[in-house]
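Protein 1 of 2
SEQ + STRUCT:
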Amino acid sequence: SSDVCSSDLRVVLATNVAETSLTVPGIRYVVDTGLARVKRYSTRSKIDVLRIEPVSQAAARQRAGRCGRVADGICIRLYSEEEFAARAAYTDPELLRSSLAAVILRALSLGLGKVEAFPFLDPPAPRAIAGSCLTSVAAARSAAAGPCAAARPGR
């Protein structure tokens, strides 16, 4: 009806942005698809990929928190309570979803010792550390050879 179109109705279609601490006044409704694009590092292909994945329970609660900040609100989830209960409690830490090459190079430059022995809060898998170590060694060798090393004859 024209009443709906002319009102100041604000609806959020929940995305990763809806999980931030930003408060937009007047949000009364949130529609949560239960999905998000999540960046993950593929150890097999050695690249970052954006995958569409179900959000964790914590992320879903954060999305619901976007409505009703200053007045009562409604969150409409496009998935069942059973699906919600089956989801992971929390989103994987970014450290476990990312390439560790930059982290390893920085740790080496700071003289922090072996990465495998570093007391991470959420330690990455040994396979992820090993793969990133190889990438880090290759990057360090390339940097030591100079910026045009790949262009030199015989390489």
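Protein 2 of 2
SEQ + STRUCT:
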Amino acid sequence: ALISSKNISRFCSYSEVERTTWQVYSLISNFLKHTKQPFFMFANFTETDYNGHKFRNGAERYSNAIYRFDHILGKLLKELEKRKMLKNTHIILTTNYGFEPNSREHTNHNKSFVISSFKIRYKRYQTSLVPTIYKLYGLPYKEFIPKLNPNLLIY
């Protein structure tokens, strides 16, 4: 989903079809080629999770899916830099949870692995993402109903 902060135009693409990491990259790259205004984008790279469930942590296909995502993330960062957008871009990369070693099972469903292009607290939950994004962009989050998790990722 994309929400432009200038004129609040919305672009949403939803599909029940699993997309490969390359397909998601292609959609984002195409969008970047045609935009000049500030935007908010959420991209869900499902191929890695799909391969983790199907083949387990440590399996070659799962490892290759992680490699593909890493490669695509690098390409996206280079593309943002080439278009002079990287300096003004906030990036939050998160997983919903991880796999147990040599297993297809998840643990700590409510804990997230989170890294970002700005300083964050390292121990928070998935439910901390929305209020963090709201605060980052100066949107009210404390009055939100239902109440949002008050434990933000940013200080």
